[in-house]
Amino acid sequence: MRIAIVDESASRASIIEEGLAQLPDIELFVLTERRGLLARIEEIAPDVVLIDLGNPSRDVLEEYFTVSRVVARPIAMFVDESDEEAIGASIDAGVSVYVVDGLASNRIRSVLDLAVRRFNAFARLQSDLAEAKGKLAERETVDKAKRILMQSKGVTEPEAYAELRRKAMSSSRRIVDIAEAVVTAHELMGGE
Q1: Percent helix, strand, coil in the chain (nearest 5)?
Q2: How far apart are the first and last CA of the chain?
Q3: ANTAR domain location, by residue (predicted)?
Q4: Could you tell me if 6 and 99 lie in one domain?
Q5: Is 118 part of any domain?
Q6: Which of 2, 110, 164, 171 has CB 3.0 to 4.6 Å from 46, enough for a Cys bridge?
Q7: pLDDT of 62
Q8: What is the pLDDT of residue 13?
Q9: How open is the CA angle 27-70-6, to the nearest 5 degrees?
Q10: What pLDDT was estimated at residue 35?
Q11: Low-confidence residues of the chain, pLDDT below 50?
Q12: What is the residue range of 52's domain?
C-alpha cells in the first residue's frame, strides 16, 4: 500500500510514520511542500493520503479541500481545532475522515482503516447512484419511444413495446438503443 503523508511539520509527520511503522508492505511518501502538491500526489499515485494541518488558516484549509476534491482516493485529515463550517466543507470536498485534536501514533492505523472503508462505501454508493440514474434515463427513453410509436402508428403501449423488442432482437441490439433511434428519428422529423 502506498501512503502519502502531507505535513509541513517533520515532527508531526513522524507521529504518523510511527503509527504506520508496524504495517506490512507499505511505502511511505512524506510531502512537506504545499507548492505543487497536487502534481506530486498524482506522480506518487498513493492508495491513501493522510494530511496533517495542525492549526490551519481558512485559506490553507480551503487549499487542501481543493486537493481532496481532485484526488479520488481515501483521505484522512488531521487538524488541532475546527468548527462546523470546516467539518461540512471537508465532507463536501470528499475527505473520508476528518479528525479534530486526534493526532496520536496509536490512532493512525484505525484512522487509516476507517478512511479506506468510508471511501469504499461512498464509492459504492456513487456507483449505485450512477447506475440507478442510468437505468432511469434508459427507461424514460423507452417510454418516450413507446409514446411516439403509439401516436404515429395508433398502437397500444404493449404493442409499441413489443415492436421495440422485436426490432432489438432482430438487430441484436438493446431495446434502449432502438428506442434512442426512434426518438432521434422523431426529433429529426420535427417531432417533440
Answers
A1: 60, 15, 25
A2: 54
A3: 122-183
A4: yes
A5: no
A6: 2
A7: 83
A8: 92
A9: 40
A10: 87
A11: none
A12: 2-103
